[in-house]
């Protein structure tokens, strides 16, 4: 046995546990969902092969069409708001902490603490805080802003934004530390050369630091896409599975669950249509992630 063959076998040996996990947890359910989506179902019993009929119902038949595109719009809203506030905010916080301001180690720990909290606990607690008689409205009354009090989760114009902001509060520490680590790894030679040329801190940030941390931006973007298209627990714990109020908080994750285990029009499980929605979620996640990798990958700079 030559050296290269032995090396390949050792590599296969070490990655095989991860491959088994991916096969069982990700690929097998995906193929089962695709298989189930090609059949009609009566309750939990598989019936006749119908091809892409379940996908046609999702895109073109009411009430699935309206529910699906409304949920997809909310997922898009999750992505846009998260990118603009959580990730841009995390980048600014990471840059701020990289300047080694006073007590920066304390700030790092405080910012990251919510990431460690259980998402279910966070959802239930913030659901109480945002109730009409909750902590948020009580605080607004104390500081003299009673006109701003409202049913944060009962008003369809702001319910989704309320849940998104809770999710941002929980997760903003993660991109902050990722960007902090990336900025700390920017070669000092590049920074010193820019400063010697008379570049301001703002110019150094946009022309030197930002291009060199594109790999980290790419990772955070892909994770945001995946998280935004698969959001479920936060909605479930704060607003329930019915998309209340008036489907304003519905996402394709909650729609998938509600359809597969209790149809949106009959109250009965629709395994075929639910499986079709599951496959669509995967395809959207895959295509959006690949697109971001291609676009941002072209902007990556190698030293």
Rounded Rg: 23 Å
Number of strands: 2
Could you report the average pLDDT, rounded to the nearest whole number?
A: 88
Strand residues, percent: under 5%
Terminal Cα span: 38 Å
* CATH topology tier name: MetI-like fold
Residue stretches low in confidence (pLDDT < 50, at least 5 long) are none
CATH architecture: Orthogonal Bundle
Reading the helices and strands in chain order gives HEEHHHHHHHHHHHHH
How would you classify the helix and strand content by structural class?
Answer: mainly alpha
What is the global morphology?
globular
Strand order of the largest sheet: 1-2
Give me a quick take on this structure.
By secondary structure, the protein is mostly helical.
Care to describe what's here?
The protein is mainly α and 303 residues long. The protein has one domain: MetI-like (MetI-like fold, Orthogonal Bundle), CATH 1.10.3720. The chain has 14 helices and two strands, in the order H-E-E-H-H-H-H-H-H-H-H-H-H-H-H-H. The protein has helices spanning 3-36, 53-60, 64-98, 104-112, 119-129, 135-142, 159-171, 173-184, 188-196, 201-212, 214-229, 233-239, 252-261, 271-297; strands at residues 39-42, 45-49. A two-stranded antiparallel ribbon has the order 1-2. Strand 1 and strand 2 form a beta hairpin. The chain is globular. The two termini are 38 Å apart. The relative contact order is 0.13. The model has no long low-confidence stretch (mean pLDDT 88).
């Amino acid at each position: 046995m030559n050296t290269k063959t032995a090396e390949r076998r050792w590599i296969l040996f070490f990655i095989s546990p991860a491959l088994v996990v991916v096969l069982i947890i990700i690929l097998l359910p995906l193929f089962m969902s695709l298989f189930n989506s090609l059949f009609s179902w009566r309750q939990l019993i598989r019936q006749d092969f119908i091809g892409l009929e379940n996908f046609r119902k999702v895109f073109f038949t009411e009430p699935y069409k309206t529910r699906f595109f409304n949920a997809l719009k909310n997922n898009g809203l999750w992505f846009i708001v998260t990118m603009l506030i959580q990730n841009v905010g995390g980048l600014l916080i990471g840059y701020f902490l990289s300047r080694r301001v006073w007590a920066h180690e304390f700030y790092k720990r405080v910012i990251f603490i919510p990431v460690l909290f259980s998402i279910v606990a966070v959802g239930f607690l913030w659901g109480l805080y945002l109730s009409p008689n909750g902590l948020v409205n009580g605080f607004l009354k104390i500081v003299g802003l009673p006109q701003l009090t409202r049913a944060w989760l009962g008003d369809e114009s702001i319910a989704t934004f309320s849940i998104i902001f809770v999710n941002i509060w929980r997760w903003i520490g993660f991109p902050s530390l990722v960007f902090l680590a990336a900025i700390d790894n920017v070669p000092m030679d590049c920074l010193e050369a820019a400063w010697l040329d008379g570049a301001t801190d703002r110019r150094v940030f946009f022309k030197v630091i930002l291009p060199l941390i594109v790999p980290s931006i790419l990772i955070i973007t892909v994770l945001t896409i995946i998280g935004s298209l698969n959001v479920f627990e936060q909605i479930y714990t704060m607003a329930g599975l019915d998309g209340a109020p008036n489907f304003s908080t519905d996402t394709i994750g909650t729609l998938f669950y509600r359809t597969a285990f209790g149809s949106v029009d009959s109250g009965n499980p629709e395994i075929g249509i639910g499986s079709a929605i599951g496959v669509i979620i995967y395809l959207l996640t895959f295509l959006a992630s690949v697109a971001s990798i291609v676009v941002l990958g072209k902007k990556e700079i190698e030293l």
